[in-house]
Amino acid sequence: MSSGNDGKDGGKNGSGKDAGGGKKVPGSSARKPTGRYGDALHQRVKTAKGRTASSNRWLSRQLNDPYVRKAKADGYRSRAAYKLVELDEKFALVRKARHIIDLGIAPGGWAQLIRRINPKAAVVGIDLLPVDPIEGVTIFEMDFMADHAPDTLIEALGAQPDLVLSDMAANTVGHKQTDHLRTMGLVEAAAHFAVDHLVEGGAFVAKVLAGGTDNELLALLKQHFKTVKHAKPPASRKASSEWYVIAQGRKPRVAIAVESEDSDEA
Ligand SMILES: C[S@@+](CC[C@H](N)C(=O)[O-])C[C@H]1O[C@@H](n2cnc3c(N)ncnc32)[C@H](O)[C@@H]1O
After folding, report:
1. How far apart are CA 165 and CA 239, in angstroms?
2. List of E strands, the chain
3. Nearest atom (ligand 1) to Cα of 129
4. What structural domains and CATH numbers belong to the chain?
5. Among 8, 70, 83, 207, which one carries the catalytic annotation?
6. pTM for the whole thing?
7. Which helix (H) or strand (E) holds 67?
8. End-to-end CA distance of the chain
9. pLDDT, tens digit, for every residue of 54-107?
10. Which residues, other chains included, contact 140 with Cβ-Cβ below 8 Å and sequence gap of 6+?
11. Cα 205 to middle of ligand 1, angstroms
12. 158-187: buried (b, 16+ CB within 10 Å) or exposed (e) per residue?
């Protein structure tokens, strides 16, 4: 099995230590890294005994990816951090939030970024994989699909979240349809969690795969949020089928009850 985990980037490059807490937010520019990061010469990977062709391709992509270099320079554990930088610049998500849930937190790039942008926010994250500690972030090594996971997260946060982020991606098995269904299953579970727990006005962001959000999920989000948009941040690799769905403005629960009563009568 290979992993759909973009966080691998950080695993290979990250210091494992949180460099958070500073005022300046490295990488907080929507521009693709250029010059110092973007213009470096293409590095060739030397062939090594025992390394497969796909490992060589991965290594070459890592060595020549400006976001990987920038993540290393900025002290982020993963290049994924820049996707959230770009989404936040466009949709003002993190800087306004006070209680944040980070689903699929490993290796921790998003959580590091959150701490830098908004150090006062309470942050709770979950992942199947172990994550090195990040100051100010409560992390559970747990399957989000486990029955007790949602309650565990809310209890640890000590409040209803105003931002639920999901960067979860299922391990890929190489069968496109299966991989798609597995990751979309995670997105659906995350969406239901967000709908059940977000405060009024709260926001939900999730990684979805090509084809965007399927009709049922889109209907659910449109029913419960004022706006639902899709975006592919520049840091998301062009070759990757990932997109992000951004649902903002959790509607008041009473209003939704009245809306659905009206539609029942119509
Ligand atoms: C792309 S990575 C997340 C990168 C992260 N946002 C960052 O900035 O470093 C996706 C993560 O989702 C996690 N994941 C997949 N299925 C999960 C599940 N059922 N419960 C919790 N985490 C899961 C994977 O273990 C993986 O670490």
Report:
1. 23
2. 99-103, 122-127, 137-141, 163-166, 203-209, 225-231, 242-250
3. 25
4. 1-266 (3.40.50.150)
5. 207
6. 0.81
7. helix 66-74
8. 50
9. 666 666 666 678 899 999 999 999 999 999 999 999 999 999 899 999 999 999
10. 124, 125, 126, 127, 149, 152, 153, 156
11. 14
12. eeebbbbbbbbbbebeeeeeebbebbbebb
List pocket residues of ligand 1, CB cut-off 6 Å: 5-7, 10, 77-78, 80-81, 104-110, 126-129, 143-145, 167-170, 186
Burial of 39 (0-12, 13-18, 19+ CB in 10 A): exposed
Residue pointed to by tokens 């976001």:
67
Strands 163-166 vs 203-209: parallel, antiparallel or unpaired: parallel
Q: Give me the mean pLDDT over the 143-170 stretch.
A: 97
* Residue 207 known to be catalytic: yes
Measured in Å, residue 27 CA sits from the centre of ligand 1 at: 22
Q: pLDDT tens for residues 117-153?
A: 999 999 999 999 999 999 999 999 999 999 999 999 9
Pick the closest to residue 189 from 162, 157, 153 (CA basis): 153
DSSP 111-153: HHHHHHH-TTSEEEEEESS-----TTEEEEES-TTSTTHHHHH
3-state SS, residue 228: strand
Q: Are 99 and 122 in contact (CB under 8 A)?
A: yes
204 and 225 in contact (C-beta within 8 Å)?
yes
Report CA(6)–ligand 1 centroid distance (Å): 9
Q: To 5 degrees, how large is the angle CA 95–CA 98–CA 100? A: 90
State in Å: Cα 112 to ligand 1 middle. Answer: 15
* Residues counted in the chain: 266
